[in-house]
Amino acid sequence: MLSGKTVLVGITGGIAAYKICELIRMYKRANANVRVVCTQNALNFVTKLTLQNLSQNEVGVEEFDIKEFKPEHISYADEADIMVIAPATANTISKIATGVCDNLLTSIACAFTKPVIIAPAMNCGMWDNPILQENLNKLHYTILEPESGFLACGYEGKGRLCSLEKIFDKTVELLDYKPLTGKKIVITSGGTIENIDPVRYISNYSSGKMGLALADTAKSFGADVVLITTKEVSRKYDVIKVKSALDMKEAVEKEFETADCIIMAAAVADYRVKEISSQKMKKTADDEITLKLVKNPDILKEISSQKQGQIIVGFCAESENLIENAKEKIAKKGCDYLIANDISRKDIGFSSDYNEVTILAKNGGMKKLERVDKMTIARQIFEEIYG
Ligand code: PMT
Q1: Is 349 in the pocket of ligand 1 (CB under 6 A)?
Q2: How far is Cα 265 from Cα 151, in angstroms, rounded to an integer?
C-alpha cells in the first residue's frame, strides 16, 4: 500500500513512545520506507537499537551528526513524503507551534513542507491547558486528538494516544492511496429482521460493524460505495436501509449489474415467518405455539450464479469446524472469496470491534488474518482481493 513512500516517524518523550514500535511495523508491512527521528527524551522510553531494527534504517537523534553535505534536518525533510509525530508531547507541540528548532525533530518539522500528522499524548491536565490548546490551534497540521481513558500517570481523562490504526489510516489517506478509484463496491451489513407480527421479529446479533468497516475502507480507497444495511448509518456515500432478507435481495439485485465487487457481510436469515400476523399475536391457553418458517432465497448463491465479471465475496459465520464448513460453503455458494469467522468467540465476530478471519479463495488458496480491529481486517481483505 505504501510502496515507494517514505514515512518519517518523529518520536518524543512520552510513555506512549513504546507503542510506536508497532506503528513502525505497520508501515513496514505496508512496504513503506520508514525513517525515524527521536528526541533525547524519547530514548528514555524506547531504545535506538529497537527503532533501528524495526525501521531497518539509522535513527536520527543528533542534529549535528552530519554525514552528507546537506544538514541532517534538510535531508530528512527532503526524503520523506509525510511526517508523523507520535506521541507528540506538550513540549514538542508548543516548540513547533512557536518555531523553536532546538533539536533534530523540531528542526525537521520547521523545514517540512509536506503533510504532517501530530498525535498528541499526555496527562489530561496538560491537554486541557489553554496554552497548549492555543499552540495546537496555530498548527495547520492534521491533529489526531488523544482519546479518553485511564492514563499511564494514574489519572483518568483525555490524553491517551489515539489508536495506531487511526494514525496508519490517516497516513494512507494523506498519501492519497486510492487503489479502488473507478470501482463500484457494494457491501451488505447487519442482521436481517424477519417480522412475526407488528411487535416481534426474528433477527441475530450482527451489529453491522464489519460491513461498515468494509464500506468506510472502500470509500477511503477511492471506490464508489453502496452500503445496503439493516442499521441506521449516516455516511457521505450511498446507504440503502433495508429490513428483511427479501428487501436485501431486492436492493442487491438492483446494484449488482453495475457493481465491480460485492461483499456480503450481512447476516441474512435463512428462514422467514410464513405468515406475518397483521395484529399483535395474543397469548393463548396453550403452553406451546408453532411458528411456521419458510426458506429465504440465498442471495449470495443466486448472484454468484449470475455474475458477469463481478468479484463476489461472502462471509461465513461458523460456531464450529470453521475451515471445514467454510470450504463446503464456498463450493456450495460459488462465490470468489469467502471470509470465515468464528462467531462462538466473544472477542471477535458478532458485535465486537475486532475480528480474526480466514480468507478462502475459489482456487483453494487460504490466508489467515490475525485478530485485529475490523477496520484493519477490512483493509487486509481489500489488499487480498485487489493486491
Ligand atoms: O455485524 P458484526 O457484528 O460486525 O458481525 C460481523 C459478522 C459476524 C455478522 C460477519 O462477519 C459475518 O460473518 N457475516 C455473515 C453472516 C452469515 O450470514 O453467515 P452464513 O454463514 O449464514 O452465510 C454465508 C453467506 O451467505 C453470507 O455472506 C451471507 O450474507 C450469505 N447469505 C446467507 C443466507 C441467505 N439467505 N442469503 C445470503 O446471501
Answers
A1: yes
A2: 36
DSSP state of 287: S
Tell me which DSSP letter residue 161 carries.
P
Q: HSE on the CB side for 10, CA within 13 Å?
A: 29
Question: Quick count: other Cβ atoms within 10 Å of Cβ 271?
Answer: 14
Nearest partner of 89 among 150, 15, 20, 14, judged by Cα = 14
> For cell 496554552, what's the residue?
131
Please say whether the beta carbons of 195 and 251 come within 8 A: no
319 CA distance to ligand 1 middle (Å): 12
Q: pLDDT at residue 73 above 80? A: no
The reply to whether 124 belongs to the active site is no
In tens, the pLDDT along 296-325 reads: 999 999 999 999 999 999 999 999 999 999
Please work out whether the CB of residue 206 comes within 6 Å of at least one atom of ligand 1.
Answer: yes
pLDDT tens digit sequence for 10-26: 999 999 999 999 999 99
Residue 68: predicted pLDDT: 63
* SS3 (DSSP) at 163: coil
pLDDT of residue 125: 92
Nearest CA to ligand 1 atom 21: 316
CB distance 350 to ligand 1 below 6 Å = yes
Residues 265-275 pLDDT 10s = 999 999 999 99
- Distance from residue 150's CA to the centre of ligand 1 (Å): 36
82-88/116-120 β-pairing: parallel
pLDDT score of 71: 66
Helical (H) or strand (E) element with 187? strand 184-189
- Reading the block at residue 307, the C-alpha cell is 455474475
Considering only CA atoms, which residue is closest to atom 37 of ligand 1? 298
Please say whether the dihedral angle defined by the alpha carbons of residues 85, 35, 17 and 72, taken in this order, is positive or negative: negative
CA atoms within 13 A on the CB side of 66: 7
For residue 189, the ligand 1 atom closest to its alpha carbon is 1
Amino acid letter at 215? A
